[in-house]
Amino acid sequence: MTSPLSSRAPTLSSALPRALVALVAVALAVWAQWLPASVESYVANEWLRDRIVRMQASTVPETRLVVVDIDEASLSADGPWPWPRERVAALIEQLLGPYQARGVALDVVFPEPGDRDGDTRLALLAQHGPLVMPQAFDFNGALPLRKGGLSGGEAAATAGAAVPASGYIANHAGLALAAHTGNIGFIPDKDGMIRRLPMLTWFAGRDYPTLSRALLACCGPDPIPSSSAGSAKANGGPTDGMAGGDGLRRLPYSRAWEAYTVVPAADILAQRWPASLIDGKLVLVGSSSLGLSDRVATPLSASTSGLLVHAAALTAQLDARAGLAPAPWPGRAIAIAYAVLLTALVTYTVARLPAWANLAILAAASLLWLFLAWLTVPHDAEFNSTGPLLTHLFLLAVAVPLAWQSTQRQSRKLLGTLRQYVADAVVDELLRSNLRDPLAPRRGDVTTLIADMEGYTSHVEALTVEQAAQLTRDFLNCLTRPVLAQRGTLDKYTGDGLVAFWGAPLPVADHADQALDAALAIIAEVRAFNRVRAARAEAPLRVRIGIESGIAMAGDFGASSRSIYTAVGDSVNVASRLETAARDLPYDVIIGPGTAQRARRHRLTGLGEIMLRGREHSTTLYTLAALAEAAVAP
User: Fold this and answer.
1) Residue of 518, 519, 501, 517 lying closest to 444 (CA atoms)
2) Per-residue confidence (pLDDT) for residue 490, from 0 to 100
3) Domains (ranges, CATH) in the chain?
4) Is 141 exposed, middle or buried (0-12, 13-18, 19+ CB in 10 A)?
5) What is the pTM of this model?
6) Cα dist. 111→168, 170, 173, 174 in Å?
7) What is d(CA 183, CA 44) in angstroms, rounded to the nearest whole number?
């Protein structure tokens, strides 16, 4: 018998479904580019961006600035925190004096007065030297935080593009006359990650720059003129090398942490560090000590010194001033254009190519987009890097299934012959596989299940012909339903039993487990049938099942006048012998070594070895552990 399949290009039932799918896919791509932070795709976008940023971070040394760290070693060498103010003043004096730093920014706030001499020296340095003093603004608004006295800033009637603050911790009044101050406060994302920095903060009618911007305004190679603060606030991107709305700028984190020169504060105090490595450079002074609680999470590290965040911001601004920052790209336009092209491609191919080809196109398109996102992330801080992937998921979830349904409707009539042998679910897979002749003999790995009724003659000898026929039909239903439900191929009925196999006409990786699933379901069906028979005072029936896996030839065999779809091979013969061997064993399911080797989802129990008829060597037998345990239960 030959298969009645014919080749025909599948199409969607009409142009309307394709147009609607394309319209929704494109709309989804556009919407994804302006998602609020509460949407899951926003979280996925940040996850992907973090990994791209981490992989792209350069290890080329940052030679324009130095980080002086009051680390654990410095605290151990010069005493625990808080240090006397005279020691802090001495540290800054060393940097500005013998070490000839261009300017120093301090990342430690002093809200309470300390020793008078130290505070006086700090105040003089802050008023007359290239020193930026810190003050930390609070942005969550939970508590009205007011501590110390604010200094610096420029008058601004409204917040404008700056980030409004709800409170602050500033230095004490003795340090309030500092000529330069910078904000060291952060605004973490919802996951606690520091990805953006408020370059300008608005509080009580004044704008305050962040620490790195204040350091550049004070002592950078190209200071920001005071009169340009408003312009910088409006379009900070070109000036500070970062992008974002409402005063927040996404930090590019273009340098890995190991690219920064980090000097222990103790080495500066003891003048152990070569002066040439600091001469003419900008210096940030802070602490990585866990005891000072200045640890934050960034895309580069789950825990790092908050001082390094300001170092990353300073690097971004120095790169922008030197023309080294990546040129801006229209990331959103790129993402939307990509999604439009993908939608057009899939809308065309989904109706003309088999399902696996469309899935391959979507998989390749996903990889291509990840590559484009890799290229675009450094050039655009605002576009949603995972937005086009939402379009991919939508096309996968809607367009491809829609084409499958259309393909099934158009081809089902052509596969009537195949349905005599194969479960409907398998037929549907054959439709999607687009095989030219699914019945053609093919060699493959299959699992064969052979089942029949024990003592059939004794059960039917006292019955009428009609009763015997009904018993046979009922019992065969108990065998057939599980085979088809588990996507098996029905080979033949053998009077009071059947032969079925898995792995053909379509190969499946878990064919052994599917056969074992069917065996368990057959046992359950027969038990349920026996309960019905017991209610009628009829004797229970026992099913015997043999299962074995191995290489076999499956296909359409026979003469031109009559043919059958079957499987032939050694493993099929072994399954028949195992079913026969079950009559002498207290287990309904006997499993061969081939199936035992391939089973992954079922626990088996060994039954020992037996010499099967027609075999040269003994065969190890197994059964399902659940059935073995039930057999020995009291």
Assistant:
1) 501
2) 87
3) 16-32+328-401 (no CATH), 52-321 (no CATH), 436-632 (3.30.70.1230)
4) exposed
5) 0.61
6) 10, 6, 8, 10
7) 30
